[in-house]
């Protein structure tokens, strides 16, 4: 569901940049006021885990499409909305800058659709009302499944609206929406199942983490090292190896675009801000599409270059390197954000 710049006008992209930047500043202040020191490493490892999990596209049967975990609801349940929003923003910044997953102009939209909506709309208005203050496993499961589905309807609808308001693509509103909503209903169900599994694991092992996020207070006095280590190990394993087996089918957004236009990736304007940001991303994205940079296509009438047979191994190595590097970069950025906020909190005391 990572939007590309080709879908957006500078006016819409810039407005969403400003809105999400303001929300990041406000969230930073809230986190600084509430920050539980032991939550900093949890922000880091959950950001790393989300980065790796989003590399795993799963096929949607009978559609030719695929989806991946959004993760906004999962992080919000475990961290609370403010810390989760900052962590998701960190993940999306790393993905856009260094892996060319999502455009730079579209970064504000992507943070809004995958971070703001689950953290500040779905979590308070749907999840908390169903789960209650002391959820049982049954209420927790129900709350997560309904929230995941609602979130995966609102986020894609945000994509449709932002595209429509931009008015620079040939995607008609009604047709685009009628393709985006059903395919993301299926993705939302899978997101709900995965989120239930992860949250249930934490709920049984350390229920105070969920209560702490729910009530915005420190989550007990027990160290979180074991939980943090488990998420970090899962992130490295997922990004380094499990990512080999991700579906190659287009994701829900690419699939919907292809059904309308006949191509998965639209070509955006080649001048002005679009061109400038594409140039920046071309320089910073050293592992584009989670793989090594590929040489230019040969101009030899389709004759494959020598060594083409080894490309499969190179692709897997590139995916593993991208997965591990991305996990470590996201971990470092989320930890840095947490430590900076912690330091500023101590300075203010």
UniProtKB/TrEMBL annotation:
The keyword Transport applies. Residues 305-314 have a biased composition (Basic and acidic residues). This is Cobalamin biosynthesis protein CbiM. It comes from Geobacter pickeringii. The chain crosses the membrane at residues 7-28, 40-60, 72-98, 104-126, 138-161, 181-203, 224-246, 321-341. Residues 293-314 are annotated as: Disordered. GO terms for biological process: transition metal ion transport. GO terms for cellular component: plasma membrane.
